[in-house]
Amino acid sequence: GMKKKNANVIVIGLDNSGKSTILNKLKPEESKRHDIVPTIGFNVEKFMTKALSFTAFDMSGQGRYRNLWEHYYRECHGIIFVLDSSDKIRMSVAKDELNMLLNHADIVSRRLPILFFANKMDLRDALSSVKCSNMLEVEKIRDKPWHICASNAHTGEGLEEGVNWLTDQLK
Ligand code: GDP
């Protein structure tokens, strides 16, 4: 029969939000053995599971590489946006990056599902997922399905719930 095409998911967020840790938890065992080689000055991580193909990169501090990672927008079918829920100071930076993403020409008119991980939920001063979504004004997203999950990338808590939601959206 026909091989089902993998859906491309981009995993983005500020540096230190927990993207690598989340990906490591989601990665199939065999691909954990391969070291990820940094590409042209900015880090891109890629791996595939049965249903999804993940590509991750940092959005922050590397403005001059912006056009290099933005070219992944066109081919993506879904987005995972990772937040450090304990980093209140940079929540507004994350909000700016989210708005830039949502207004990008290759994203703006498409009905792409967006999964938010309010990561580091285990930290004492972590904001709740509701508080995070308020600070990012996620409710204003009307043309794309979205979902927010509190997560702990160390234990894996919240990750499966989130990825299951995204996988359902991509069917
Ligand atoms: P990236 O830059 O977005 O890829 O972030 P990393 O995955 O490298 O994580 C940045 C730091 O946050 C590391 O020290 C991680 O161990 C830590 N970290 C990631 N996820 C969590 C989490 O859920 N809880 C806590 N307490 N620390 C986390």
UniProtKB/TrEMBL annotation:
This is ADP-ribosylation factor-like protein 6. Mg(2+) binds at S20, T39. InterPro entries: Arl6, P-loop_NTPase, Small_GTP-bd, Small_GTPase_ARF, Small_GTPase_ARF/SAR. Belongs to the small GTPase superfamily. Arf family. GTP binds at G13, L14, D15, N16, S17, G18, K19, S20, G61, N119, K120, M121, D122. It is a peripheral membrane protein. Transmembrane segments: none annotated. The keyword Lipoprotein applies. GO terms for cellular component: axoneme; ciliary membrane. It is found in: Cell projection, Cilium membrane; Cytoplasm, Cytoskeleton, Cilium axoneme; Cytoplasm, Cytoskeleton, Cilium basal body. GO terms for biological process: cell projection organization. Gene3D superfamilies: P-loop containing nucleotide triphosphate hydrolases. Keywords: Cell membrane, Cell projection, Cilium biogenesis/degradation, Cytoplasm, Cytoskeleton, GTP-binding, Lipoprotein, Magnesium, Membrane, Metal-binding, Myristate, Nucleotide-binding. GO terms for molecular function: GTP binding; GTPase activity; metal ion binding. It holds the Pfam family Arf. Its main location: membrane. The keyword Cytoplasm applies. It comes from Ridgeia piscesae (Tubeworm).
